[in-house]
């Protein structure tokens, strides 16, 4: 290839380089300033997005609502917490969860219009105390029985809370009043008690031989040990008057209706 041909090929490249230099010289400092401003704007936008991501993570991970002072302490110094919270709240406004302020603190919560789809009914397991188990057993085997008789058998006082719990479970009910001075109230079990423990009648409660075979009674029980027959408590009992109308209003006997809606707690 001749020198003239090389020169003709190189000239277009040289011309392009010269043109770029001339354009840069013509634009001067303003072009550099515009480029710097554009770069700074991009950096600011990127920084804000990173701050938003950090704020979002802090609020999602928090076990409880966070106040602005706590959030400021975890964000970079240049972060505008009010602007970031407003932006994040706007972004989540139409989503399944939203950012809300509660008592001066911020948290994510589910959207109100989704409440029906998120409702869940759960039955909390409940465990009877030893005192409640003993009281229920005494009532089951000795009914109709007064509070004083329960305390005499157990050897300790019966707390009101124990009886209230058994009433709440609808396992016991006031049966009547003893024909003795003071006419103390007597207690007995309910159809709900039979239903929960799978008994056809109160007479199906395990007897002494059953309990001994199950290991619930010591094989060396005293010779004078007496265990009542629970079946004797069915029907009318001598020495007991039924509750009058005032008693029924006081103790709300209608709550013993078999059709009453009571959850099946694990006891």
Automatic annotation (TrEMBL):
Q: Which InterPro entries does UniProt cross-reference here?
A: ScpB_csome_segregation (IPR005234), WH-like_DNA-bd_sf (IPR036388), WH_DNA-bd_sf (IPR036390)
| Domain of life according to the entry | Bacteria
* Positions of region (Disordered): 228-267
**Keyword field:** Cell cycle, Cell division, Chromosome partition, Cytoplasm
Protein name listed in UniProt = Condensin subunit ScpB
Coiled-coil residues are: none
Q: Which Gene3D superfamilies match?
A: Winged helix-like DNA-binding domain superfamily/Winged helix DNA-binding domain (1.10.10.10)
Presence of the UniProt keyword Cell division in the record:
yes
Gene Ontology biological process terms from the UniProt entry: cell division; chromosome separation
Acidic residues bias: where? 236-247, 256-267
PANTHER family annotated for this entry?
A: SEGREGATION AND CONDENSATION PROTEIN B
């Amino acid at each position: 290839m001749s020198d003239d041909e090389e020169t003709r090929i190189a000239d277009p490249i040289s011309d392009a380089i010269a043109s770029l230099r001339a354009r840069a010289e013509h634009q001067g400092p303003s072009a550099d300033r515009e480029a710097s401003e554009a770069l700074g704007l991009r950096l600011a936008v990127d920084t804000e997005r990173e701050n938003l991501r950090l704020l979002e993570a802090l609020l999602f991970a928090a076990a409880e609502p966070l106040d602005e002072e706590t959030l400021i302490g975890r964000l970079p110094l240049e972060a505008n917490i009010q602007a970031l919270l407003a932006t994040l709240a706007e972004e989540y406004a139409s989503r399944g969860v939203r950012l809300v302020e509660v008592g001066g603190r911020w948290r994510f919560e589910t959207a109100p219009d989704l409440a029906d789809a998120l409702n869940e009914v759960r039955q909390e397991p409940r465990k009877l105390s030893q005192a409640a188990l003993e009281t229920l057993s005494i009532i089951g085997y000795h009914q109709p029985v007064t509070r004083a008789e329960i305390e005499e058998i157990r050897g300790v006082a019966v707390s009101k809370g124990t009886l209230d719990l058994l009433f709440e479970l609808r396992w016991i009910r006031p049966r009547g009043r003893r024909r003795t001075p003071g006419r103390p109230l007597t207690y007995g079990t309910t159809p709900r008690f039979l239903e929960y423990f799978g008994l056809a009648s109160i007479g199906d409660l395990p007897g002494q031989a059953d309990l001994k075979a199950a290991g619930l009674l010591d094989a060396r029980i005293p010779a004078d040990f007496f265990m009542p027959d629970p079946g004797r408590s069915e029907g009318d009992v001598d020495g007991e008057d039924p509750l009058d109308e005032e008693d029924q209003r006081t103790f709300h006997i209608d709550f013993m209706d078999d059709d009453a809606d009571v959850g099946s707690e694990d006891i």
